[in-house]
Write a structure and sequence with these properties.
Number of domains: 2
Shape: globular
Helix content: 55-70%
Number of helices: 12
Radius of gyration: 17 Å
Structural class: mainly alpha
Number of strands: 3
Length: 202
């Protein structure tokens, strides 16, 4: 299965998840600091915006974090049904899928877990899909600042990376911790965990 196929599959799984949420679940705080489940979903709909319009918006707000926050805030009036429809309708046509599929896959997989973990809705992630994200996490999350000098070892799949004190655990938890998700740290062990914890907390 190619990377683009994985991105589309991840998006469709997200749409299926969101389509079954209650109003209360939509307002649940996610693992993505300061954002609710709904806010994360709005953020993921950003690649349904035509690329020229997105580029113009980024020129006006060159800081990607500020731009993301502005986009989320400007879509407060969009209903959850409309949001799900946008995500479903753009699953195969989004520009991030077309031009930067590895980035899109990393962003979608982590953000879906940002939603699922607080809601207590675990899933089994396709091992090949998870491996792709472990091998190339979202660079905008600056994963190197968390994982440099550490050896990451997945305990539920044949994957390891880096050198130094070991951090061991499920591949999903490693993927989340690599981009700064505190909630994943309790699922990890090894002599490198405390170093990772200090970096994520700092």
């Amino acid at each position: 299965m190619g990377v683009r196929t994985h991105v589309v599959a991840e998006r469709r799984e997200l749409v299926e998840l969101l389509g079954g949420l209650t109003d209360e679940q939509w307002q649940t705080p996610s693992l993505c600091g300061g954002w609710t489940v709904r806010d994360v979903a709005v953020h993921l709909s950003l690649d349904a915006v035509p690329l020229p319009r997105y580029t113009l918006g980024l020129l006006r707000r060159p800081n990607p974090i500020a731009y993301n926050d502005h986009y989320v805030a400007s879509h407060r009036d969009v209903t959850t049904d409309e949001l799900v429809a946008v995500l479903a309708g753009s699953a195969e046509t989004s520009w991030i899928t077309r031009y930067w599929p590895r980035l899109g896959l990393a962003d979608h997989l982590v953000h879906q877990q940002d939603i699922r973990r607080p809601l207590g809705l675990p899933r089994t992630i396709d091992p090949e899909r998870l491996r792709l994200v472990l091998e190339r996490p979202d660079p905008f999350a600056l994963p190197w600042r968390y994982t440099r000098g550490l050896r990451l070892v997945a305990t539920d799949m044949d994957w390891r990376r880096g050198s130094g004190p070991e951090v061991r655990g499920p591949g999903e938890a490693l993927a989340l911790a690599s981009v700064g998700r505190v909630a994943a740290l309790d699922d990890l062990d090894g002599e490198g965990v405390e170093t990772l914890r200090r970096r994520v907390a700092g």
